[in-house]
Structure formats: C-alpha cells, structure tokens
Specification:
- The complex is a heterotrimer of chains A (about 475), B (about 110) and C (about 220).
- By secondary structure, chain A is mainly α.
- Chain B has about 110 residues and is mainly α.
- In chain B, helix 1 runs antiparallel to helix 2 and helix 2 packs antiparallel against helix 3.
- The longest helix of chain B has about 30 residues.
- Chain C is mostly helical.
- Chain C contains 8 helices and 4 strands, in the order H-H-E-E-H-E-E-H-H-H-H-H.
- In chain C, a hairpin with a 2-residue loop joins strand 3 and strand 4.
- Classes of the chains: A mainly alpha (about 475), B mainly alpha (about 110), C mainly alpha (about 220).
- Chains in contact: A-B, A-C, B-C.
- At the A-C interface, helix 1, helix 2, helix 4, helix 7 and helix 8 of A face helix 1, helix 3, strand 3, strand 4 and helix 7 of C.
- The complex binds protoporphyrin IX containing FE (HEM) (2 copies) and fe (ii) ion (FE2).
- One protoporphyrin IX containing FE binds next to helix 7, helix 11 and helix 13 of chain A.
C-alpha cells in the first residue's frame, strides 16, 4: 500500500487521502492484535508484565485501537467513494488533509500517554488529560473535543460535496447516517457520579454505534461494493439499501434495551430489549441473502460468457461476502444467544460476552473495511480486474480460522463461567476465581492465545498482500487496459 | 394479586439445551432462507425447495422449545409464534421484490 | 417506462419514506422512554432515605446505612435492602460530605481504569470479579479479608487492600498497585458501597446465596 504513493493513478485527491486513512488504520489494527496477545498471555501467566504493563492497560489499548482503526478505515472508505458517487472532488480537500494530520497527531499522543502514564490521581485533571476510564471511549476529554472538531471538518467535506455533486441514494444514506454517528459521540462526553446514569448514556454511544449507525454504514459500503465490483444495477441495490435501513434502525434503536436489564434501569426494558433485539438478526439475514444472491447471479452471467459481468476485484468481493456471513454469525447468532433477559442474567459480563464481541466486531466490521482497502489499492494502481494472490488467500484462511477458533474457545469459557460461577455458586469473588481456575477455563484461555497467534500470522499476510498486490503478476497484464478505461 | 415472576430460575443442567436450541433456531432459519434462495437462483434443482419448509417447521419447533425452556410467559410464547409465521412469508416476499424490481429497473447493466 | 405497470413495493421512494418513518418512530419512542428512565435513575435524596422511600439509585448518604441484598417475593428476585444506620469509617456523613465523597470515588474509579479489569453492573472487562455487589461479598464479610489486612471493619479492610493490593494476594492473578492514596481509597469504598445499594433487577442472581453454596463447593464438575 505504501508503494501506491509512487505509482498513484488516482484521479481525485480525495481518494489519495483515503489511502492515508487506510495506512494508519492498518498500523492500528496491528497494534490492536499485539495488545490482545499481551492481555491473552496475562490470563495464563498473570505475572507477565505485572505492575509494568498491566492487563488493564493492554486491554484499554486493545479496544481503543480497535475503535480508532475502524473509524479511520470508515473515514477512508468515505473519501474513497465520495468522488465516485458525487462525480466531483471533495470540496474542502485541503482542510480534509489538515484534519487527517491533526487527528493522527492527537491519536499518537493519546496512545503514548496510555502506554507510558497509564493512570492518574482521582481528579478531573486525569479525565481531561490521561484517560476517561470508560470502556471503548477512554480517550481523555481534550482528545474528545479534538475528535469532534476533526469529525466536523470531515462531515463538512462529505455534506458540502454531496450538496454540490450528484445525490445518489447511497450518499443520501451516508450523509444522514454519519450525522447520527458523529452526534452520538457527544453522549459519551460528560461526567456523573451516578454510575447508572453513566452507563445509560455510555450505551447510547456503544450500542447505537455498532448496532445501528455502523451497521447502516456497512450496508452502504456493501451497496457501493456490489455496484463497483459486480456491476449490480444501482436502482435495485439502492432499493434494498433503504429496506435494510428500515429494518436495521427499526430493530437496532430500541434493541438498545438489551443493555438496560441490570444497570439500575426499570424492568420494562426487559420486554422492550428482548423484543427489538430479537429482531436484530432479521436485517442481517436479509443483507446476507442479498449479497450472496447478487454474487451468484453475476457469477452466473460471467460464466455464461457475457461481457462486463466478471468480478472486478475478487479479494474485495471475497471480504464483502465474508462480511455478510460474519455479520450474521457474530452479531446475529452470537448476539441472539444471550439477548433474552432470561438468559442474559446468567451470561451478562462473562467470557460469553467477549466471544460475541470478538466475532461481531471482526465479522461485521473488520471484514468489509479490509475489502474497502483492497478496493483502494485497485484504484491506486488502476487495475481493471484484481485477482487474489496466494497471500490474499492465506490472509483470509488464517484470519478466519483464528477468529472462529478464538470465538469457540471463549464460548466454552463463557459456558463454564455461566454454569459454575453464576448458576451454581451465585457469583461473587470466590465463585469467580473457582470458575477461572477450572481446567475448562484454563484450556479455553490457552486456545484463545494460540488462535490469537494464528490471527496475527494472518494479519502479516494481509499487510504483505496489501503492499504488493498492486504489482502482482496475476492481474499485471491488464494494467494498460485499466488505465485506458479509467 | 399473585406475584408475577418474570425471570424464574433456570437449573444448571438446562443451559446446554438452551444454548443448543437457540443456535438451532437460527441455523434452521438460515437453512430455510438458504434453500429457497438457492433454488430461486437456480443453483439447486427446484424440487429441493420444499425441503426448506421442513427447516421452517424445525425452526418453529425449536423456537417453541426455547420459549418453554426459558419459562417465558404465554404471551411471549404467542408473540414468538406469530413471528415464526411472519418469517414463513419473508423469503417469498423477498423474491417477489427481486422479480418485480428487476422487471422495473431492468437486468444488471449491459456494458 | 411509464406504460409498464409498476408495483409500489419496488418503488425506491416508498422504501425511503418507510425507512424515514420507522426510524423516526423508533427515535421518538426511545426519547420518550429515556425521559421516563432518567426520572427513575436519578439519585434519590437524603430525605428519601430517612423516610424509607425506595429509589433505584439511592442518595450518596446511603453509606450511612447497613445494606443487604435479599430475595423479594413480590418481584421474584433479589433486591437491595437498606437497613439500620451504621457508621462508615467511624462517622456519619452529611449529605454534602457524602456527595463529595461519592464524586471523588467515581472519579478515582475512572482515573484508575477499574473497568478494564473488572465489571461494574456487569459491564467492563472479565479479568477480575464483578464489583456490583463487592461491598456485600462474603469474602469481605466472613472475616477473610479483614483478617488478611488486619483491620476491624469492612471499609477499613477494603481501603487497605485498595492501597496495597499486591501485598494481600488471594490468587496468582493479583490486582496491581495503582498508586491509590488513603483519601482515594476511602472514596472508592464509598462508591462501592453506594453501588451495592443500586436496584439492579436481581443481578447478580443468587448472590445472596453464594456464601452458603460455596461451602458445598461446585457441583458442575
Ligand atoms: C455488528 C454488530 C455488533 C457488535 C460489533 C457487537 C459488539 C458487542 C460488544 C463488544 C459487546 C460487549 C460490550 C462490553 O464490553 O460490555 C456486546 C454486548 C452485547 N451484545 Fe452485541 N454486538 C453486535 C450486535 C449484536 C446483536 C445483533 C445482538 C442481539 C441480537 C447483540 C447482543 C448483545 C448483548 C445482549 C450484549 C450484552 C452482553 C452482556 O450482557 O454482557 N449484539 N456486543
Ligand atoms: C490476536 C488476536 C486477539 C487477541 C489475543 C485478543 C485478546 C483479547 C483479550 C484478552 C481481551 C480482554 C477480554 C477480557 O476482558 O476478559 C479482548 C477484548 C476485546 N477484543 Fe480482542 N483479541 C484479539 C483480536 C481482536 C479482534 C480482531 C477484535 C475485533 C475485530 C477484537 C475485539 C475485542 C473486543 C471488542 C474486546 C472487548 C470485549 C468485551 O468487553 O466483551 N479483538 N481481546
Ligand atoms: Fe447491543
């Protein structure tokens, strides 16, 4: 990918900027995995880095790097598709570039402070300068404000370009969705002594991101991908996009209730949360069927020898198809598993939650964002038809084996925790440690680490592939054709 | 008034069944949708499609079983069964939409 | 195009409008529920406590009372029970003092990043025990931790532990020293005691039974 700076065939500055966002995203993805490995090691060998680089620090950087790399890759994806959809250059591209550097500098400072300062005294100053101590959105307040400013610049760019250029359905969805996504962040930016109130609003950011606004975002990316890669008919894709928006928001917004069972909030959330969150897998099934149907149909056309119907970017298409399945599996199946209050009272806050969190984040988001990076590389080299290389396939195989293996291990661990710590012993300090030290748990934790290493190997293949696939011989002969067509 | 116990206790040895049945609900659900989809796409022969309905029946049974296992109220159980009925029509509605939209907007781009 | 008979079901406009309406309705419902919930999860007042008015989130002065967690026939699960007055760190705290203490405790909880090892109200990380009802845990109330730390009261034992956690290990997996001062430790204990009085609809389930069940050991394996 770095190589693409030189052989850059983008027509639009916006798309060059997109590649910058992708580069930082991939670095943070790597950092995320390393931190996960440290934390997973500490589960097995608690003295590893004890009081030097504690579990809490490793985990904080793990999940923060996760959220930030995904946001980077999302912004990158928008800058990539913006000129395609609107037909014009992003209007405030200079400002956009400045915002990129400001954001990256801020992220660097935040991470360095996390790693080297770690914790502060119990005062407002710590929350403003070091970390806010709230899962996923630990970024200190100064950085929150910086993020809001940068996001406003980004949003201005998207909105103004949309107003000036062509207004496609995909762009309309994105413009509305990004507005909600950015606005929700504000719900996580205040302090209260009331832990229930704190968590009530905290979930607005976390849940309404991953189960509403991010899902709709992914729907838009998939729609764009189907048009770009398969040449699917825009009207049909956009009609489905609106149906997906309807189902995702219709279930996801009130599905928020599944986090309000036990945090001090009233009982009526049991029914509301159960009903709406049980509906959440429905749009995921629809998205899955839709992507596969289109893929199968176009492949049929291609095999029949019809021109213009070949898959134009098979690595990206593969990741989009994996996304459709992973989203359904991780969010749909693993989510449904524990979303009814009758079950959740036992599984709440166990390794089971971690199993779901990993498979859902990877399946629903990491996959399609990786696909978008491949689309970016294809454009950077103006390749007409991009094919998979050996490395592409290795990355896919290893990352998927790793995440599935990890999920299965964590599910077994969670199941044991539910049985022993919760159902049998009723929770509490001793019950917790009895469950943690049983062989089932220890072995599951061992396998999780092994599978983490498998994932990391897959990641190395992925990076190597993104760096080199643009020049790979598999599609090299078509480069000149591509340049002409562009 | 009789106290209404919303969340009765679940015995430790019931959990495995709950987990398995909850998974089956979704797996059969996908199976049903998948068979109908694949047959509409022409990837499998049309006569296999009716087996999809067997999946649907299994799914309905599993969901019913789940509602019993977690001791849900009769009302919730009814809601779930109505949802199953809706799910029965979902793929048909879906392909009706696909056919109609292809008629209206034409086949994929001819380039 | 115009001659073709087209169905409304394939109309993009139809679906766009429907999506907008459904989303709008969901948002309005959520707003309405939020207003109701916010009312119910705002902290109670000291008067509520004195008059025995139950609040889901009691006033900070709940630290001046004995707290229990017991099965409620009517609700079908365990609920916090606020009992007689008791001293907290040897004194009774005024409403202002208690509020300030709770605020300091919550700030410290965030500053020291507790949630990235523990769960609070079941949310957080899974490397260490849930703290929702930590104040009521048998471990602190059956003499184990008071013994290990050499303190007389639960609150003093907790504060001592929080200041030097790795000096009082119970398992190979230890809590690290986070540089917690005496004042911060007292505030944290107040935060934990207050949290244990929050009505969590019966989570963690069967917690009030755990001391009894632990004696029997686990039956699962
Ligand atoms: C792509 C979408 C999704 C992502 C990325 C995701 C991710 C997560 C994560 C990371 C958590 C843990 C939060 C924490 O740290 O406390 C969580 C919790 C939860 N998720 Fe999801 N989720 C998704 C979709 C769903 C869906 C569709 C459902 C339901 C059908 C669901 C049900 C739940 C429930 C019930 C919890 C609470 C677990 C507990 O009580 O401990 N999720 N999710
Ligand atoms: C090398 C691979 C990885 C390893 C070894 C690893 C390890 C870990 C560990 C040890 C935790 C802390 C769990 C706890 O609190 O008990 C964690 C949390 C988490 N990780 Fe990973 N992880 C890896 C990859 C990933 C990936 C690829 C994603 C998502 C794309 C991810 C998302 C998360 C999330 C969302 C949480 C918080 C879960 C929750 O609170 O429920 N991790 N991970
Ligand atoms: Fe959620």
């Amino acid at each position: 990918m770095l190589g693409s700076i030189k052989s850059n065939k983008f027509q639009y500055e916006s798309q060059k900027l997109a590649m910058n966002y992708f580069r930082v995203a991939i670095v943070l993805f790597g950092a995320q995995l390393l931190m996960g490995l440290i934390a997973a090691t500490q589960f097995l060998y608690p003295s590893f880095l004890f009081e030097v680089y504690d579990f809490s620090v490793a985990r904080m950087v793990h999940i923060n790097a996760l959220v930030v790399w995904m946001l980077y890759a999302m912004i990158g994806s928008v800058y990539l598709l913006l000129p395609d959809e609107t037909g014009i250059e992003a209007v405030g591209i200079k400002l956009g570039k400045l915002a990129f550097w400001v954001l990256t500098a801020a992220v660097t400072v935040v991470v360095l402070v996390y790693i080297f300062i770690q914790v502060g005294p119990g005062s407002e100053a710590t929350i403003w300068l070091i970390n806010e101590g709230r899962e996923y959105i630990e970024a200190p307040r100064w950085a929150d404000i910086g993020i809001v400013v940068v996001v406003l610049i980004f949003y201005y760019n998207v909105f103004a370009t949309y107003m000036k250029g062509e207004k496609t359905g995909i762009m309309t969805v994105l413009v509305a969705d990004l507005f909600a996504l950015a606005g929700l962040y504000l719900c996580g930016m205040f302090f209260t002594s009331n832990i229930s109130m704190d968590q009530y609003w905290w979930w607005w950011v976390i849940h309404l991101w991953v189960e509403a606004t991010w899902e709709v975002f992914v729907g838009s990316l998939a729609a764009y991908g189907l048009i770009k890669i398969l040449g699917a008919k825009r009207e049909i894709v956009e009609m489905w996009l609106w149906i997906e928006v309807l189902m995702l928001f219709g279930s996801g917004i009130l599905g928020l209730g599944h986090h309000y069972f036990w945090i001090g909030t009233p009982e009526y959330w049991w029914e509301i949360g159960a009903l709406f969150s049980a509906l959440e897998p429905v749009p995921l099934v629809a998205m899955f069927v839709h992507v596969l149907y289109d893929w199968g149909k176009e492949q049929g056309h291609a095999e029949a020898g019809q021109a213009g119907h070949a898959v134009k970017n098979s690595p990206a298409m593969a990741w989009i198809a994996i996304n459709a399945f992973g989203n359904f599996l991780g969010a749909g199946i693993w989510g449904f598993f524990h979303t009814l209050p009758q079950v959740n009272i036992y599984t709440h806050g166990t390794q089971f939650t971690a199993a779901h969190g990993h498979l859902a984040f990877f399946g629903a988001y990491a996959t399609i964002l990786i696909g978008m990076m491949y689309l970016g590389v294809q454009r950077a080299y103006a390749i007409e038809r991009m094919r998979m290389t050996f490395k592409t396939k290795m990355a896919i195989a290893l990352l998927i084996t790793g995440i599935l293996g990890m999920t299965v291990s964590l599910t077994i661990a969670g199941y044991e925790q539910v049985l022993v710590e919760r159902a049998d012993l009723g929770g509490g300090w001793d019950a917790y440690f009895i469950a943690q030290n049983l062989p089932w748990m220890l072995q599951a934790m061992g396998w999780r680490l092994v599978m983490g290493l498998v994932m990391f190997t897959g990641f190395i293949f992925l990076v190597a592939d993104l760096f080199t696939i643009g020049k790979a011989k598999e599609h090299a002969e078509q480069e000149s054709v591509g340049a002409a067509a562009a | 008034m009789e106290p209404v116990i919303m969340l009765p206790q679940i015995a430790a040895d019931e959990f495995l069944r709950i987990f398995v049945v909850a998974t089956l609900v979704l797996v059969f659900g996908v199976g049903y949708a998948a068979l109908i989809t694949l047959s509409k796409m022409g990837l499998i022969p049309k006569r296999v499609a009716p087996f999809g309905y067997i999946f649907w029946i299994l799914q309905a049974y599993c969901l019913y079983d789940l509602s019993v296992l977690i001791h849900s109220s009769p009302f919730t159980a009814k809601v779930l069964m109505v949802a199953m009925l809706a799910y029965f029509f979902a793929p048909h509605l879906y392909f009706y939409l696909i056919e109609q939209s292809e008629k209206r907007y034409g086949e994929a781009e001819e380039s | 195009m115009s001659e073709k008979k087209v169905s409304v079901w394939t109309s993009i406009t139809f679906w766009r409008r429907s999506a907008a309406w459904v989303t709008g309705t969901a948002v309005v419902l959520l707003m309405w529920l939020t207003f109701n919930t916010i009312g119910q999860i705002s902290m109670g007042t000291d008067e509520d406590l004195q008059n025995g008015v139950k609040k889901r989130i009691p006033a900070p002065t709940v630290i001046n009372y004995k707290i229990d967690y017991a099965y409620d026939e009517k609700r079908g699960h365990e609920v916090p029970v606020i009992g007689e007055k008791e001293l907290f760190f040897g004194k009774e705290w005024s409403a202002d003092e208690a509020a300030e203490l709770l605020r300091h405790g919550k700030l410290t909880q965030q500053a020291k990043n507790c949630m990235n090892c523990h769960t609070l109200l079941g949310n957080g990380a899974y490397y260490a025990p849930d703290l929702t009802k930590a104040w009521l845990d048998p471990k602190w109330n059956d003499g184990t931790m008071t013994g290990i730390t050499g303190k007389d009261t639960v609150e003093e034992a907790m504060a001592e532990f929080l200041m030097h956690p790795s000096q009082f290990p119970t398992h190979a997996r230890m809590m690290p020293n986070l540089g917690i001062t005496k004042e911060e430790a007292i505030a944290l204990v107040a935060f934990l005691k207050h949290m244990s009085a929050i009505d969590t609809n019966g989570f963690p389930r069967n917690f009030s039974q755990s001391a009894k069940r632990l004696e029997g050991g686990t039956h699962a394996w």
